[in-house]
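User: For a benchmark we're assembling, each entry needs the component sequences followed by a predicted structure for the full assembly. Here are entry 17's components. Please fill in the structure.
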Amino acid sequence: MASITIRDVTKSYAKSQVVHGVDLDIASGDFVVILGPSGCGKSTLLRMIAGLEEISGGEIAIDGTVVNRLEPRERGCAMVFQNYALYPHMSVAQNIGYSLKVAGVPAAERTQRIQAVARILELEPMLDRKPAALSGGQRQRVAMGRAMIREPKVFLFDEPLSNLDAKLRVQMRSEIRKLHRRLNATSVFVTHDQVEAMTLADRLVVMNGGRVEQVGTPGEIYKRPASRFVATFVGAPAMNILEGVVELDGLSLLGDSRRLAIPRVGLPVGAKVAMGIRPEAVRLVAPGSQGALNATVDLVEELGAGRVIYVDLDGAAFSVVTSETVHPAPGETVGLKISPEDMHFFSSETGARLDVFKASVPVPAH
Amino acid sequence: MEKRVTFSRRTIGILFAVPQLLLIFTFFYWPAGQAVYWSLTLQQPWGGGNIWVGLDNFRSILSSADYWNSIAASLVFAAISTGLAMFVALVLAALTDRQLTGSRFYRVVLIWPYGIAAPALALAFRFILAPEAGFMAVVNQAWPGFWDPGLDGVDAMASIIAAFSWKYVGYNFIFFLAAFQAIPRSLIEAAAMDGSGVIRRFRDIQFPLITPTIFFLLVINITESFQDSFGIVDIMTSGGPANATNLMVYKIYSDGFKGLDYSGAAAQSIILMLLIIVLTIFQFRFIERRVHYR
Amino acid sequence: MVERTPILNFVTHLVLFIGFVLAVAPFVIVAIAASHNLKDVNDVPMPLLPGSDFWLNIKTAWTTADLGPKLLNSFIMAAGVAAGKVIISALTAFSIVYFRYPGRTFIFWLIFVTLMLPLEVRIVPTYAVVANVLSPYQTILDVTGLSWLIEKISGVRIALSFGLLNSYTGLILPLIATATGTFLYRQFFLTVPDELTEAARMDGAGALRFFIDILLPLSRTNMAALGTIMFLWAWNQYLWPLLVTTDQSHATAVTELKQLIPNIGGIPEWNIAMAGTLIVMLPPLIVVVAMQRWFVRGLIATEK
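Assistant: Structure for entry 17:
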C-alpha cells in the first residue's frame, strides 16, 4: 500500500502539450478513478505514474519517493491494460507468473503463488491454456492476475473493461471492487465511462484538456460539479444548460423570454451565466401551472423503469427524466417545474461554478 | 511507421546492431569501396603495389569490343529470359487463380523449379539439350546440324535462356499468384455483376491491379539474370562458343580470377553496380506507386 | 462464380497441364537418365522407361564427386547462413525498431543499401577481404597513422592477418552480410502491439529479456520462413563457394557438379552426371516440398 503524490506534472510531445500541470494526492488504499473524454490526458497521466511515459515536468512520488527517473519495474506498480496485453505464446500460468520469473523467484514458490492467485480469480481450470483459447472475461481475469501476483504497491487500470460486452462489464466491475476491498491496495483506474467511474471510485478525478477539473467523491461530483464541463460530462442524460444574462432584478434566460427572479449577488449586470439543471431534477406538471415553464415534447424514450422526455423550450433542447406515469405524446405541451435549489450556475466565460446565487432565497419565476 | 514504445537504454540498442554493422562493413562496404579504388588504379595481383590511373580502366573496358559484346549478350539474355519467364508465369498464375479442380496441385508443383540450384538445373538442361544425346538429338537426327550449342552461339544463348527461364517461371508464379489472390473476391464479383466476362474481367480488373507486381518482378528478374546466371553459364557453356554467352558477371569472374586483371574486373563491377542501382531506384519509384493501389 | 465457361475451362486445364509437364519433365528426365547404362543414355532417342542401373549410377556419382563430405559441407554452409541470418537480422531489426539513438536512421539506410548490390557483382574485392579478413582494419590503422603511432610507442609492428579461405566461416559470413531478413523482422516487429512491450516492462523485463522471452517466440513463423528461404538460397550458392574453397575439403555439393560434366571426347557419361545432379537437387527440393508454406511466405515477405 502506498500513497501517490503528483505535483505540477506536465507532459509534452514534440509539438503539443497534453498534460498541463496536474496536482493530485492519492491516499494509501484509495480507489481513485480518473474520468474524462478521450484525449483528455488521463491515460498519459496513468502511464506517467507507471513509468511508461517520461515525465516532462513536475514530480510524481510513490510513498514519498520521487519516481521520475525510475524504471517501471522499480516503482512497484502493476498495470492492467485495455486490451489485456497477454503474451499470446505463453499459457495462463506463464502469463501470470512472468514477472516473478523475471524477478528470479524460484519455480516452486512461483507455482504456489500462481495457484493462489488463480484460486482467487477462479482461473484454476484454465492455467494451461493459451490466451487465444479464453473468453474476453477470462482474459480480463488473467490480466488482473498478472497484476495481482506481484503484490504491488499500486494497481493501475487503463480502461480495462472497455473491450467487454455490457453484461460482463458490470460483473467485472463488481469483481474489481470486491478485489480492492480484499487487497486494499492503492488503485488508479482510468475510464471514459462515467457509470464505471461513479460505481468504482472512492474518489473521482475528472480531467479535461490535460487539466484536472474536479476531485471529489462521486456524490460530490454529481451534486456540486465544479465546472460546466464536469456538470455536463457526469450524469446521463447530460445536465440541461440554459444560457442567461444577469440583470438588475435577476437572471434572464432564453433571450429575455423567461426570467428567473433571483437576487443578484456579486455579479455585474450583463454578465453571462449558464444555468444547469439535471434532467432528473425537473418535474413534469400540467402546462400553465404556477411557476412552470411551458415546453413542447419532441421525443419520448422509454427506459422501462422510467422515460426520458426530450422537449423544446423556446428553441432550447431540454431533457427530463421521469418515472411518473405520465405519457406525453410528441407535439404535446407540458409544464416543467424546476426547484431553485437544484439549479447550478456556471460562468459562461470560464465555465467555473458560481455559488453566488445558491445562498440567496429563491424567488419563483413570474 | 515508428514504435510508440521504446527502450531507454540507447547504448544497448546500438549493441544489438553491431554484429550486422561489422558484417556489412567488412564484407559489403569495404569490398564495394575497394572495387571503386581498384577500378581507378592499376592493381598488381595480390599485393605488389598499385598505380593511380584515373579512369583509364574504364576507358580501356569501354573501348573493348569484348566488353560491349558481353553487355549485348547480357541484355539479350535479360530481355528474352525475363519476358519468357514472366509471361509463362503470368498465364499459369492467372489460370491457377481461377481455382478450377486441381489448382491446388498446380500451386504446389509449379514452384518446385525455383528451389533448384542454378548449376544443377544447368547440368540437367545441358543433358536435355545436348546435341548428341538427350532430346535435341532427336531433332538433330531429323535435320542434321540443326542444333549445336557447343558451336552455334545462338543455340548456346537459347540453352541458357531456357534453363534460366525454367527456374524463374517458378519464382514469378509464386508472386503472381499471391498478387492475384490479394485482389478482393468482392471486386471480381462486382465486375461480374456489372456484366463482364472472365476474359474481360482479367483485362479490366485483375491485370491493372497486378501491374505493381509486374514492375517489381521485372526488376528482380533482370537483376537476377545478371547474377543467378553465373552458375548456368559456367556449367552449360563456359561463356562460349566464341564469347556468345559471356555474360557480365561471368566476364568479371573470368577476367578477375582467370585473367588476374583485378583493375579491369573492378571497373566492370562498378559498371554493373551502377546498372543495378539504377534498376533498383527505378523499382522504388514503382513501389511508391504500388502503395497508391492499396 | 456461377457462370459456365466450358471452353475456357478446357483451355485452362490444358495450359496448366502443359505447364505442369514442363515444370516436372526435367526432374523426370534426370531421374530416368540416371537409371540407364552408358549405352542407353546415349541412345537417340533415349528410352523413356527407366533402366536398371539407377543405384549403380548413384553410387558412381557419389564416389566420383565425393558427394558425402560435399553434401555435409553444403549442409553446414546452408544451415550456418540460415541460422546466422535468422539471428543477426532479428538483433538488427530489434535495434532499429525498439530503440531511439542518434544515427539510427543512418544505420537503417546503411543496411538498406546492401539490398542493392548482390555478392556476385562485388565478388573480386570480397574475395580479397576474405583472404585476409582483417585487412580493412589494417588499412584503417595504416591510413590513419595509428599503426605508425603504435609502432613508435610500443615497438610492435601491427600486421593483422586472418585468412578465411577454405573455412566455413569464410563461406558463411559474406553470405550473411546483406539486409534480407532485417526488413522482414522490421515489418513484423512494427505489428507487435505496443501494449505487449509495456506489459513486459511493467513485469520487470528489460530490453534483452523482452527480446528473448516475448519477441523471439512471437517471431517463430517469420524465423521459419526466413530460415527456409536462406537455407535454400545458401545451398544453391555457386560462385562464392567456387572461389573461396580452393581446397577440396570445403567444397560444396553444388560446386562439385562441375566435376560431373562429361568430358569432350569419348562417350559422355550422362547417366553418372544425371545421377549426381539428382542427388544435388534433391535436398533443396525436399525442403521446398516439406516447407512449402514457409517457403512461399518467406519469399514474398523478404522481397517486399
